[in-house]
Amino acid sequence: MIDIDVILVTYNSEKWIPGCLSSLEKANYPKEKITLTFVDNNSTDKTRELLENYKGKQTFGAFNTFFMEKNLGFGKGNNYGVEKTNQAYVYFLNVDTEIDEDCFLALSNAVEKGPSEAALWESRQFPYEHPKVYNPVTLETSWSSGACMLVDRQRFIEVGMFDDKIFMYGEDVDLSWRMRAHGYKLQYISKSIVTHYTYMSANEVKPNQFYNSTYMNFMLRYKFGTWKDIFKGYAMYHGLFFVNGPSEGHKKIIFKKIIGSFFEGMKYRRWYRKNKDKNFKPGFKLWDYEIIRDGAFYVNQLPAEQPLVSVLIRTCGRPNVLREALISVRNQTYKNIEVVVVEDGPDISRSMIATEFADLNIVYQATGESVGRCEVGNIALATATGIYFNFLDDDDLFYAEHVEVLVDQLLQHPNHKAAYSISFEVPTEVISREPYVYKELFHNVQHKQPFNRLVLMHHNYFPIQTVMFKRELYEELGGIDLSLEVLEDWDLWLRYALRHNFKYVEKLTSLYRIPAHPVHHGNRQELFDRYLQIVRNKHMNQRLEITMADIFKDAEYLMNKPATIIHTIRRMNARTFAFKVRNKLFYWAKRVLK
């Protein structure tokens, strides 16, 4: 286990200090390996009194307090703390936080088992996880939040520590990019959890954050970007004149910052001139610095129970592809997982699984001869022993909280038999199969659809890996229809959804790949078109045993979406649509007459 200096910068923080210290005391980590250092930025409340009178000082390896005569700001205050401490690893922690008991243990494991190029490890924040994208396999991220990050002290000092010119907001992005410019990697450690009371409510806009973060986006364009990035920054910043800001003097604040922006920007530009040979390319995404996943204000929490979840993976002679899917399962924050891998054909992946994934609870079997993806899916379903099932194609990936989120939702909503989340569709260009090298062209959300049976009758909006369903659904309604060559997952979801409710979870937790440059062969397209109609006809005469309220709810959704209903009516057979509604009305008419 590593020795950790925990540095906390305070400013009128009396409200948060007791809870933060209490959580640190409960950490499942040797206390002698933890040094606490508080740097107070000249607080005027009882912050100093609370720290000086803290009775748990002897709990930790050391307890230091430094009281500044003025407010140094966040970055400079943390730099001061680093200069006064000496452990090999430094954990910057906001004082308005409470750490999970395994927070430090997860960080220590990540340091000891992770890549040698890593210089920074970021904890995951509750209740609102930062929505930026990270790599589900390597856990690498493009920038890290300064609210709860562990750094290698030597590398932190090497890159210049926090930029003293940045008073608050943006200093973490600046540090992250300088570390990457020096060739170091940043890791996102989802198993290290910190509850951060940064927002009083979802979608809260804090004036200080709004003005400082937008202005620092502007300054970071000077520091790291091209002149094109800077000109875009000017256009964006001038655009703030035309929005309703969070303060009464909004336009005056924006105007004042613009007046001095060029001269201050040129001070930041010095870094670019000295380091342009590093060929570092920043990731400006308008006001963001990375692609954002849906669900920024989804309230994360750990499930109250840990029922067994069976992840069902179908594969076919491509262990290098399968490896990444299995790593994404290994990275799950949820612990009680059984992985059922069924290989269509010879047992090509057996050796790789046995050698590299002995730590996972894997049940593996191969069919010997090819039997097709539908039969392989049924074998996986019949083999699984979990309470919940979740398919994962071997070229798709879970983000680390996928299983945790869906289990929690199913436990909270026991009347739902299945839950589904949002997913990225990622066009992927495969450069090499051996080794497995690919290029992701972009991330797109294709489906963000609340549960609606009428829409599902028209098209499948459940990418297969997004759905977790109860075992009892499979036992009641069976598995995959072997008569289908394609669209077998859509048929499965239709059979389940026409009988039971699915819970929509508005958070992005997975990704699925499609070919970057698809080649549409005539025969294959004809096959999909034929089975599209086969599946629709199969369910045309279904009598849906749902409440009248559900009927009106489905209709109301479509009426509020004119484009959707026009598109639906055009492409659906009108007779089929009328027949379904007639069946629903006849069913309830009989119930009423009885």
UniProtKB/TrEMBL annotation:
It holds the Pfam family Glycos_transf_2. It comes from the Bacteria. Residues 6-169, 310-443 form the Glycosyltransferase 2-like domain. This is Glycosyltransferase family 2 protein.
